[in-house]
């Protein structure tokens, strides 16, 4: 479980393509501190398992399902990535509940800079539209953000200077893909209400 508060901007240092998977080596001095085999680290919002750890680098395997559902398959050596370790029990929840299970990908459509922030417009897959609401939470490349405006096929977020400086969203432009995870609470509510409606129809 994560919070969507990115701890470190890491880097892909090696990519090994396998038959139906991919193995990444990533550099992240902060998140690798004390890391061990089996630990979880979110990479651009995708929960990955540490396979090996040496110095300030770790390796992680990415299965075909993850490559198909997220933008990780497009990453190459030198790419910068958002890194976050799981939240610790008893710590403050700075963002919102993030599982690290990507629901789909969007694309940056437009950036509008302002003096103290920047508005970013991102495309939204049709099957995720119902989960995104104005002033609700959404995870973009592992970053917990508040939705400014929710349209039928897009949404906008407002980025403060810290987010621009310390995450991948400060470096991506129109046409670049991003991983999206909607608020899991919305999905649970939908499922429970759907079961109740179906039960009433029986």
UniProtKB/TrEMBL annotation:
The pathway it acts in is: Cofactor biosynthesis; riboflavin biosynthesis; riboflavin from 2-hydroxy-3-oxobutyl phosphate and 5-amino-6-(D-ribitylamino)uracil: step 2/2
Do you know which CDD domains this protein is assigned to? Riboflavin_synthase_like
Quote the EC number.
2.5.1.9
Residues covered by the Lumazine-binding domain: 1-96, 97-193
Name the keywords, alphabetized.
Answer: Repeat, Riboflavin biosynthesis, Transferase
What InterPro entries does the entry give?
Answer: ATP_synth_asu-like_sf, Lumazine-bd, Lumazine-bd_dom, Riboflavin_synthase-like_b-brl
What SUPFAM superfamilies would the database entry show?
Riboflavin synthase domain-like
- Is the keyword Heme in the record? no
Keyword Repeat on this protein? yes
> What GO molecular-function term can you cite, just one?
riboflavin synthase activity
What catalytic activity is recorded?
2 6,7-dimethyl-8-(1-D-ribityl)lumazine + H(+) = 5-amino-6-(D-ribitylamino)uracil + riboflavin
Q: Which domain of life is it from?
A: Bacteria
Placement of Lumazine-binding repeats on the sequence: 1-96, 97-193
Q: What does this protein do?
A: Catalyzes the dismutation of two molecules of 6,7-dimethyl-8-ribityllumazine, resulting in the formation of riboflavin and 5-amino-6-(D-ribitylamino)uracil.
Which PANTHER family does the record associate with it?
A: RIBOFLAVIN SYNTHASE, RIBOFLAVIN SYNTHASE ALPHA CHAIN
Question: What is the protein named?
Answer: Riboflavin synthase
Give the originating organism. Answer: Streptomyces violaceus
């Amino acid at each position: 479980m994560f919070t969507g508060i990115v701890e470190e901007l890491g880097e892909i240092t090696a990519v090994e393509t396998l038959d139906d998977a991919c193995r990444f080596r990533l550099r992240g001095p902060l998140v690798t501190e004390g890391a061990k085999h089996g630990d979880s680290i979110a990479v651009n919002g995708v929960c990955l398992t540490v396979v090996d750890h040496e110095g300030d680098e770790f390796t992680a395997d990415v299965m075909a399902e993850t490559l198909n559902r997220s933008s990780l398959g497009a990453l190459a050596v030198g790419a910068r990535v958002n890194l976050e370790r799981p939240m610790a029990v008893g710590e403050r929840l700075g963002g919102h509940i993030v599982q690290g299970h990507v629901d789909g990908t969007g694309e940056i459509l437009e950036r509008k800079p302002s003096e103290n922030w920047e508005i970013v417009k991102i495309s939204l897959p049709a099957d995720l539209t119902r989960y995104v609401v104005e002033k609700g939470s959404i995870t973009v490349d592992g970053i917990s953000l508040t939705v400014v405006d929710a349209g039928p096929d897009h949404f906008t977020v407002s980025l403060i200077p810290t987010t621009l400086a310390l995450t991948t969203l400060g470096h991506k432009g129109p046409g670049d893909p991003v991983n999206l995870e909607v608020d899991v609470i919305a999905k649970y509510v939908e499922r429970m209400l759907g079961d109740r409606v179906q039960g009433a129809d029986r």
